[in-house]
Amino acid sequence: MDSLISQLQKFVPFDASQQSLWISIAAIAFNPTAWNIVARNEHRNRTLTRNVFGGNARIGCYFLAIMIFSFGMLRDSLYTRALLAQPQKAILPQPWDTIVPAALAIVGQIFVLTSTWQLGITGTFLGDYFGILMDSKVEGFPFNVLRDPMYVGSTMCFAAGALWYERPVGLLITLYVYIVYIIALRFEGPFTDMIYSTREESKRKGKRSEVETKKDL
Q: Is 107 annotated as a binding residue?
């Protein structure tokens, strides 16, 4: 591990002795991991819905949404704190050192906010794992230009922070964020597809049963 850190420090200046750096890295991995575990458990066992919120799946989803949003804010705060404790070095020449990060932050936030607007609270915060399914696939902006605009937007904001504060290690963390999101999507995507496929199969079976009942009559 020490040799790997030494090799990275040859290319990217950072202070590995700062505890805030490792706390930030842990928080970045914790969020998608924890929420995927909680949501999968909810889909299988309805733990929050049945045991905590008296069978109300929507309130359970709102509770999870508040938790995800709150921990996301904490993660961002820990990331900023970690950046400020790291060596500063100019990354871009003026005036690009302010224009590029500002543009990345604005576009990234547009992707995140418009995704939430299109999906709604339950669509954004894993409502399908609670049995709250969307009627149809969302195809409006930003989903007509990106498959996973929320993750892309979030990654852009991490990069924006690194460039704004001129902390090269932030770009390394941004790459780490991107890898974490790719791994999370490998679990989220197929599982979500399975949920909607199950619904469609149930609909088809229901239609076949109706047709057979009419024939019997």
A: yes
